[in-house]
Design a protein that fits this description.
This protein is of the alpha+beta class. The protein has three helices and eleven strands. The chain has a single domain (27-155), classed as Immunoglobulin-like (Sandwich), CATH 2.60.40.
Length: 156
Amino acid sequence: MCREVILKLCLTVLTIAMGITAAAAQTHSQKQDWTVVCDDECVATQQLENPKNKLKFTAVISAIKNNNQVVLRVIFPLGVYLPPGIAFKIGEYEQTHPMTVCMKNGCSVMAPLTDELEKHMRAQDTLLIRYFSTQDQENEISLSMKGIANTLDMLK
């Protein structure tokens, strides 16, 4: 009995120590409107909310492991009308992207960070995201570009 308690105590201490080591390896930093979390790789996020209907969105910028391609992914709440896709507009850049996958936490659209898109992101203050909540109801949310230059530099 005593041996079992000591063994459980040792396992608990070891588990806590491993958690502390893992937590210590992870770093968090704030780049103006972007939160960057780095472990083996870095991921930048920004939380968004549509002021009209209070829907919440998450923007994520990260590198894809195998090919070092940086992508912008926006996670939309369920209920977004999918067929028209999602339009990104920043400066002279405007492109529509299809939803790639829907899961229980929302639907995602992914846009590769081309040289043209990155140039506009670094030069502008806001990226406009247009989506439809119904077939006829267009909505727009703004993604802040404050801190994007430092954020992208960390991801590359």
